[in-house]
From TrEMBL, chains A, B, C, D, E, F:
SUPFAM superfamilies: AhpD-like (SSF69118). InterPro entries: AhpD-like, AhpD_core, CMD-like. It comes from Acidisarcina polymorpha. The keyword Secreted does not apply. GO terms for molecular function: peroxiredoxin activity. This is 4-carboxymuconolactone decarboxylase domain/alkylhydroperoxidase AhpD family core domain protein. Keywords: Oxidoreductase, Peroxidase. Residues 49-126 form the Carboxymuconolactone decarboxylase-like domain.
Amino acid sequence: MATVKLWTDVEVEAVPAVKTVFDDIRATRKSDFVNNFWRALANQPSLLERTWSSVKQVMIEPGTLDPLTKELVYIAVSTANSCSYCVHSHTAAARTKGLSDEQYAEFLAVIGMAAETNTLANSMQIPVDQEFLIG
Amino acid sequence: MATVKLWTDVEVEAVPAVKTVFDDIRATRKSDFVNNFWRALANQPSLLERTWSSVKQVMIEPGTLDPLTKELVYIAVSTANSCSYCVHSHTAAARTKGLSDEQYAEFLAVIGMAAETNTLANSMQIPVDQEFLIG
Amino acid sequence: MATVKLWTDVEVEAVPAVKTVFDDIRATRKSDFVNNFWRALANQPSLLERTWSSVKQVMIEPGTLDPLTKELVYIAVSTANSCSYCVHSHTAAARTKGLSDEQYAEFLAVIGMAAETNTLANSMQIPVDQEFLIG
Amino acid sequence: MATVKLWTDVEVEAVPAVKTVFDDIRATRKSDFVNNFWRALANQPSLLERTWSSVKQVMIEPGTLDPLTKELVYIAVSTANSCSYCVHSHTAAARTKGLSDEQYAEFLAVIGMAAETNTLANSMQIPVDQEFLIG
Amino acid sequence: MATVKLWTDVEVEAVPAVKTVFDDIRATRKSDFVNNFWRALANQPSLLERTWSSVKQVMIEPGTLDPLTKELVYIAVSTANSCSYCVHSHTAAARTKGLSDEQYAEFLAVIGMAAETNTLANSMQIPVDQEFLIG
Amino acid sequence: MATVKLWTDVEVEAVPAVKTVFDDIRATRKSDFVNNFWRALANQPSLLERTWSSVKQVMIEPGTLDPLTKELVYIAVSTANSCSYCVHSHTAAARTKGLSDEQYAEFLAVIGMAAETNTLANSMQIPVDQEFLIG
């Protein structure tokens, strides 16, 4: 149903630029499973490389935000952008990173609340308070 | 520039249903400052009450997600929904809740990354992997 | 601040294809005021003509939905699309078509509610019930 | 295909906080059918309660906007937010509230028109006319 | 799964206003295949006519933008609006108009990049440079 | 009005990681003008570097899509995402790359048309034709 071919492992093996990225995905995640997102991007090797390199740097390398927080932020954006694929894959990722049912319930309450107040603020075209401006 | 009047404190004092909510906002936040969002909602007392009651329950009452995480999720949604008011007010709120420059930089990287991969997944109409489905 | 020139009445007078549309806008609305949307579209005469012809047919010619309902639906879409210009112009239009403060308060409650439940349904990726499907 | 379990009636019976809401949904709507949205929210009892209480107040209790107008506004927002579930469920609801084929055709024309002009106004970044501003 | 009936050729034959448009679609595209979008719009003859007339004028009549560029712009908008149907139909159309795999890969990189920088600019609420303003 | 400081040239000079990127922006574009987007990103040096590196690769390095087409696609996405900053900056960029008034008029017609049909397809939940599916 995709607009592009999803590469099988056999096809990946045949193209070194793609194989290198897939090998790194597997090594980094310590798992053999490579999800469809990367199998679709395999059609565009330079986009595949750049995207994986960014995802690895942003989502996987340690920083000051913990991994679960980053996943929740990711799901929030994906929900607002109606990306069904991304919501599914990152909700699954969040669960493997320890998301509890209680946290998920609170997360849903927050994104619902945010969407509601976004709509109210946008519809009433409320001007930003001076107090919120920088400098 | 709003589509509704922004209520002054004098106007708020004159309407008990509105005054009660404003008093609770001030008491709950331990601050005299009430931002324009609530001054706009004052035109719709029942919506004002229900919205404040929900925001208080979702964003302020303690739960299993820490307050800063909730603010980041809120900003993520507000950004994706292009709500300028909400981005300003909740970025300011996040800073008062301890958001560091480094965390903000990482947050921006995550929402940018999410928007990019949302777009790629939506444009290639990638089917959800069986592995991500529940049950 | 626009990306195009906003045409003055003097400029409009000089271009027959544009003048014809502006004359019809004024005659149809029984008002001399022509808002910036049309002054921006004047740069693209064929788009101006086609857009005005559609707006006139859809929003002004009588049908089975009353004019105020159509304005509310228009504002709802414009809010969700974060079109500041459209929210302002159509909220003003709704008021001239009789929108009361009480109706506006209820309208805001509905669009806020819709945005919240949209987000919840999209985030939990709830499957459509068989009962809702046609045929 | 959801990211959460959809509760069966047997599961609902076992949790009083959930059962109370489901009973009220059935009593309020005078129908035994409870759609998947609520079966998904059952995983988050406090969100379920708050959401149902708001939906009931906003969409069902009588006010100054008629029920069909509220449904049309709801579908308009849901369409703009690409919520497939919400479009399906509220289009079905609108039909039970009397939406005729002719009204639906006009509604589609309005939301299409709105989306088109939203895009034109946003792309040309048209400034809001002074005439549309409050106060 | 649609909210409306998709008209079969037999049903189309029976309604002259619909048949005329379908005949013109087939003649203009030099193909017997009429996709579901038009079969859904057949329920609303005046919307069908107006939409086909606009699509024909905008997308098919020769102008200063080449047909492939117009399709890419169309897919870009459809992706950002999460319209699965439109992404599929216009990606297919772009391929028949000569879209190569290499161009598609570059296109995906551009829309991903745009979505990422949109998010960054919206989240930091960056003010527009004077240099970009007209006049 | 931004949520972050916009770096002046003096501030840029003081931070080598930022100065290196700014120097490359100026050299690549053969212009001294550096727009606010980069002055905002300067607060996040690693995000600045990664973003510039991607923008340079995607938008500036020669490929199979011509530079003007890429700008039009960029504006299309930015409009749909309601990014005022991005619409302004890339419309200006498109003009420097040769966008004529006639092309801009056609471009606006296409994105308006796309938004309208996106909305119609999403609201009627039209199923994708088998003919559009790959494989």
